[in-house]
Amino acid sequence: MNNEDAVIENLRAILDIRWICEIGIGKLLFLGRFPTDIMTRVKALSLLSGGLDSILATELIRKQGIEVVCFNIKTPFGIPKKDGTSEADQAASQLGVTLKVASVGKDYLRMVRHPQFGYGRNMNPCIDCKIFMLKKARKTAKEIGADFIFTGEVLDERPKSQHFPALCTIEKESGLKGKLLRPLSARLLPETAAEKKGLVDRTKLGNIQGRSRKPQFQLAKDYGIKSYPSPAGGCLLTCEEYSKKLRDLFVNKKQVSMNDVDLLRVGRHFRIGANKIVVGRNEAENKVLVARKTKSEYYFELPDIVGPTTILQGPKTKKAIETAAKLTAFYSDAEAGEVKVNFGRGSLNKSMIVAVPEKTFAENLRVGNVMK
């Protein structure tokens, strides 16, 4: 090596050191300047719902050699599988990643009841919900030493919560402005801190936009992902019938508990003034209603005919008791005429005779119907 070559090599060494300081180790990894085992220092937290978008976002980041830990919040509005697991549980199992699950309490119910950014088509406060979850995710990310957080959000896929202004609002309100990565649409969005630091190779991220699912289906095929839920969603708040029951609950009860919300999954719900009446749809629901009733609530059953269990919440007026008894009779196997209905608090120690009502009687009292 002559003197000129030596000067050039020394100059390159000086520039390399300065380069490392300025752009960070992460970007050098993608340029092949450091051993791949250093990549283990980069860790990310994925907000994993279990839907296809969050699965693909997780895989996009993992394909870059980054360690990914997944995070999910268990809400009272999720739809569990028959085996009791959630979509997030199944997705994490399929991907072979660690899943951290957090539960919610009354603070979550307060958010659902009074969302700052409003509801979607039904009682789904998607923007507020995402902000809530990301705030929780920030704490978990700090605990595990994650370098950044990412989600499966796709630009313009959902009209309420995934247009560009909404994405900006979610970042700002969750305390992640400029820091929240959306891998599936990243190349269409402003560069995040993780990309600027070189922790993620932006050129290997997605540019998906809009409501068409074809790009995601193709990516799933490319990654060999065969199992994922339908795009319909796994949240009861997007369901019209459930939303009617939840809205009725919020309107008629000031202090709402988790037990109140859980009960909305069970039975047929009716409203008569200050009273809520819940009628079981099958034997399993009948048992749930008896187990969950409070000491002050009446329950109703027919002694001689196969029928439902009914619970009466609210004031025990004569009209309310008679209405609950009639609804119990209507949903029983009694065809017409008068039937005996037993009722009581701790035991069925009272009874009354009621006529089996017409169908319109029940329909007009059903929660969500205009006629009462």
In short, what is this structure?
This protein has 372 residues and is of the alpha/beta class. It has two domains: 26-235, HUPs (Rossmann fold), CATH 3.40.50; 266-365, no CATH class.
Task: Give an overview in words.
The chain is of the alpha/beta class. It has helices at about 5-30, 50-60, 85-95, 105-115, 125-145, 165-175, 195, 215-225, 240-250, 260-265, 285-290, 320-330, 360-365; strands at about 45, 65-75, 100-105, 150, 180, 270, 275-280, 300, 310-315, 340-345, 350-355. Strand 6 and strand 7 form a beta hairpin. The strands form two sheets. A six-stranded antiparallel beta sheet has the order 6-7-9-8-10-11, sandwiched between helices. A five-stranded parallel beta sheet has the order 3-2-1-4-5, sandwiched between helices. Mean pLDDT is about 90; it is low at about 10-25 and about 25-40. The protein is built from 13 helices and eleven strands. Helix 2 (about 50-60) packs across helix 8 and helix 5 packs across helix 6 (about 165-175). The chain has two domains: about 25-235, HUPs (Rossmann fold), CATH 3.40.50.620; about 265-365, no CATH class.
Instruction: Name the CATH architecture of the largest domain.
Output: 3-Layer(aba) Sandwich
Looking at CATH, which topology of the largest domain would you report? Answer: Rossmann fold
Quick one: how many beta strands? Answer: 11
3D shape: elongated
**In terms of structural class, how would the helical and strand content be classed?**
alpha/beta
Oligomer: single chain
Low-confidence stretches: 11-23, 25-39
Helix and strand string, N-terminal first? HEHEHEHHEHEHHHHEEHEEHEEH
Report the average pLDDT across residues: 89
Supply the number of structural domains: 2
Name given to the CATH homologous superfamily of the largest domain: HUPs
- Radius of gyration, taken over Cα atoms and rounded to an integer in Å: 28 Å
N-to-C span: 95 Å
The percentage helix is: 25-40%
β-sheet strand percentage: 5-15%
Q: Give the helix tally.
A: 13
Strand order of the largest sheet: 6-7-9-8-10-11
Instruction: Report the biggest beta sheet as strand number plus sense, adding barrel if it closes.
Output: 6 strands, antiparallel
CATH class of the largest domain: Alpha Beta
